[in-house]
Amino acid sequence: MKAKISISKDRVISKIDDRLYGSFIEHLGRAVYTGIYEPGHETADDMGFRKDVLEVVKSMNVPLVRYPGGNFVSGYHWEDGIGPKEKRPKKLDLAWSTIETNEVGIDEFQEWAKRVGCEVMMAVNLGTRGAEDAKNLVEYCNLNTDTYYANLRKQNGFEEPFAIRTWCLGNEMDGPWQMGAKKPMEYARLAVETAKMMKWVDPSIEVVACGSSGPFMPTFGEWEKTVLQEGYDQIDYISLHSYYGNPKENTPYFLGSSLIMDKFIENVVKICDEVKEEKKSEKTVNLSFDEWNVWFHSNEQDKKQERWQIAPPLLEDIYNVEDALVVGTLLITLLRHADRVKIGCLAQLVNVIAPVMTEKNGKVWLQTIFYPFFHTSVNGRGTALTTDVEVETYKAEELEAIPYVDAMTVLSEDESTLTLFAVNRSLTETADLDLELTGFEGYKPVRMEVLDGYDVKETNSAEDQHVASRAKEVGEKISLAPLSWNMVQFRKD
Ligand code: AHR
């Protein structure tokens, strides 16, 4: 099969916001406890963080991590997780039917983020709480005033403010599974008043309002419209969440999942721009795709978990090669929309639907989905360029025209490196690339990293991590193996 890829240096989509490569840690399952934090572990540092996990996360160059939920945040009292650990209460978490010990809270998490070198994206509880507690949390985190909450942070040993810039106004507030779920106008009013007060405390923050929990929701569309109409001036971003799965074992269809993501993004952009037009506003509300991934493998096993355990294994999907290819195409889709999607969070980061796994008291290991995320996050910074792909398409279920090859290119800030990310969805055929690079005279292919040659169902485990990317020799002729994830870099002589 032939695939013609055309790019031109002057066909710029947008500068990529680094936060597109964000991730997510929720107080859920073993993400925090025995994930990033395990005081008894042989690699634990002075605060109980696992250094083996820290090193892997650092290598991923994650710029921002959303915290502490997710569904968990909708019942969370942030004050339970600060101050002396022995005084912190154990509480029921109704989101996941577990017990939260509060050993880790905002103080510890922002310290972990500092050690990783990333920003915290903080979510506030708009399920069981509201504006009062949210604005107090902004004071606690970001102010240096001689006032109660700022002083409380200092008493807890943190003289300098945490300077948290990006804040989520609740989580999936239209979902019946959410503690304190809301009707569109109910949420809109609460979100707007909360954002207003949070920004009165610290005008430098940016806020993300909840979009509908997904395109499948009956509230989708109306929800976004109501929230934006009510809060256009206060809201900086609207959130999108989506998870993809292959429960029917239909690989060709599953590999087309990114077309569903693409449509979802386009629909939300359309709603944002309609409201902008209605309001005759100069401001553009952008998108925060702050939960996205493949999630379905662990659904059945999670139903068997007993209630009220501390940090039980939950949502521990074991990912295979086709999942990694889907994750690759989802990343390509986010890049294609870099003009409007400014924040993206791979949900999640450690143990819970995650690229990075840990054994309690044991090793850290990498899942198949680690590789596309790692390659794009480390190499996909700079400017996203329009990348036209002419290739055959196929049909699967309602997806009429899935291109066999999906690709995006990124030009580094200093223009020294052009990086192509590409997935070949064909089960059987190699794609021979015909590259038309306009404005890139003197650029030569110098590096190729691929995830190829595996059966789609192959997985890794703590004992066996044979699914991994490898360097492939690169020459003037570039081809993409069937069912492969590829990164090709071009540099100027
Ligand atoms: O990421 C897992 C869960 O998925 C989050 O808690 C929730 O926001 C979403 O439904």
What features would you describe in this structure?
By secondary structure, the protein is of the alpha/beta class. It folds into 2 domains: 114 residues, Golgi alpha-mannosidase II (Immunoglobulin-like, Sandwich), CATH 2.60.40.1180; 362 residues, Alpha-Beta Barrel (TIM Barrel). The chain is built from 11 helices and 26 strands. The strands form 6 sheets. The protein has an 8-stranded parallel barrel with strand order 3-4-7-8-9-10-11-13, surrounded by 6 helices. A 7-stranded antiparallel β-sheet has the order 2-16-20-21-26-23-24, with helices on one face. A hairpin with a 5-residue loop joins strand 20 and strand 21. Helix 3 packs parallel to helix 5 and helix 10 runs parallel beside helix 11. The chain is globular and about 65 Å long. The model has no long low-confidence stretch (mean pLDDT 97). The protein binds alpha-L-arabinofuranose.
